[in-house]
Design brief:
Layout lengths: L2 E5 L3 H13 L3 E5 L2 H10 L4 E5 L7 H11 L4 E6 L7 H7 L1 E6 L4 H18 L1
Parallel strand pairs: 1-2, 1-3, 3-4, 4-5
Helix pairs in contact: 3-4
Length: 124
């Protein structure tokens, strides 16, 4: 079981990801903004953050960078409907463990989580 934080301002995405991930036995918390994400990360322990890159209150790439710097063992999976416009190197350099192009399938989600968890286990 993983503790997963979903950062996305779209309620439908929050609900869908919570349902899919909880059905697999994961604990899932959702928040709509980078500010909420920071407050939540400081108050609770998470294994993975699934974060949209287009957030209403912050640059999602900068959020990934800040999480990676302040919480080096916390893995971030970046999500975006505009992933083609973002060079993968930019997200990897910021600290993203994986990237998901919206819309994505449950299989793609679990594949990204699986590779992220393997990387996390290798560090531990």
């Amino acid at each position: 079981m993983l503790n997963i934080l979903v950062v996305d301002d779209e309620t439908a995405i929050q609900i869908l990801l919570r349902e899919i991930l909880a059905a697999e036995g994961h604990y899932v918390k959702t928040v709509p903004t980078a500010r909420h994400a920071w407050n939540t990360i400081r108050d609770e322990e998470f294994d993975v953050v699934l974060s949209d890159i287009s957030l209403p209150d912050a640059d999602g790439i900068e959020l990934v960078r800040q999480i990676s710097m302040e919480f080096p063992n916390l893995r971030v999976i970046a999500m975006s409907g505009f992933m083609a416009a973002i060079p993968p190197a930019t997200l990897y350099e910021a600290g993203s463990a994986a990237m998901l192009q919206k819309p994505f399938t449950a299989r793609e989600l679990f594949s990204a989580l699986s590779s992220t968890v393997r990387a996390l286990a290798a560090v531990s």
